Amino acid sequence: MTPWEIEGAEFMCCNCSYGCPCQFNAPPTNGTCEAMGAISIARGHHGDVRLDGLNLALVLSWPGPIHEGKGKCQPIVDERADAAQRSALLRIMTGQDTEPFATMFSIFASTMAQVFDPISTRIDFDADVDARCGRIHVAGVFDLTGEPLRNPVTGEAHRVRIDLPHGFEFEIAEIGSGAGRAQGNIALTLDGTHAQFARLHMNHQGLIRHRATA
Predict the structure, then answer these.
(1) 214: pLDDT strictly greater than 70
(2) Tally of domains in the chain
(3) How many Å apart are CA 12 and CA 144, to the nearest integer?
(4) pTM of structure
(5) How confident is the model at residue 213 (pLDDT cuts 50, 70, 90)?
């Protein structure tokens, strides 16, 4: 196993209601799970390979709850990555260099029936975690936008966070509303569904926590 560590920001959107039942160990809102999003790595490495400034993206689909498996995954890597960086990103994304079930990469990998050949393309990532807004453009694959939840009476931005002291993806995620469309091996459309914005810090052993757990 090659040691690795990444620190950066995540913007993900799925087809469930705001809050995402998965975060509460409940079944998905509509029975299936579909998601897309990206991670922008501010600082990172895989062994001696630096990953600073690179992005990665995923499109995911399961016919039922994630833990029941039979999932499909389209991994996408930053076209700016050289051969060594591309290999490193893919090994991280597919859970190959992670202790079992230590991160969402490892957990998702254990539920996959099909992983499509990786795509190397332009990934534009712009997200403000605190403002709960963002935009992702993955050339030829998907576009995704996110905005804050709105008070139905006043229209003002409504702030909600999910706090997971023992989570395997994030410690705290800011929740918003997302919309996007993916094409290709996993075609899906999301409109006004769960979006999450989070700061990530993890390595091959799991999350690197910056808050005391309850």
Answers:
(1) no
(2) 1
(3) 9
(4) 0.95
(5) low
User: Chain centroid to CA 55: how far?
Assistant: 11
Residue 201 in domain: yes
Question: pLDDT band at residue 138, thresholds of 50, 70 and 90?
Answer: very high
Answer with the residue of higher pLDDT: 56 or 168: 56
Burial class for 62, CB neighbours closer than 10 Å (0-12, 13-18, 19+): buried
C-alpha distance from residue 15 to each of 19, 88, 131, 170 (Å): 11, 29, 21, 19
pLDDT band at 210 (very low <50, low <70, confident <90, very high): confident
Confidence of residue 211 (pLDDT cuts 50, 70, 90): confident
Q: Which range marks the domain in which residue 49 is found? A: 4-207
For residue 48 the two structure tokens come to 């001696």
Spatial contact of 57 and 138, defined as CB atoms under 8 Å apart: yes
Q: Does any domain span residue 139?
A: yes
Q: Are strands 71-78 and 55-62 parallel, antiparallel or unpaired?
A: antiparallel
Asked whether residue 212 is domain-assigned, the answer is: no
- Rounded to whole angstroms, how far apart are CA atoms 157 and 103? 31
Which residues are bridge partners to 161 per DSSP? 174
Q: How far apart are CA 17 and CA 28, in angstroms?
A: 9
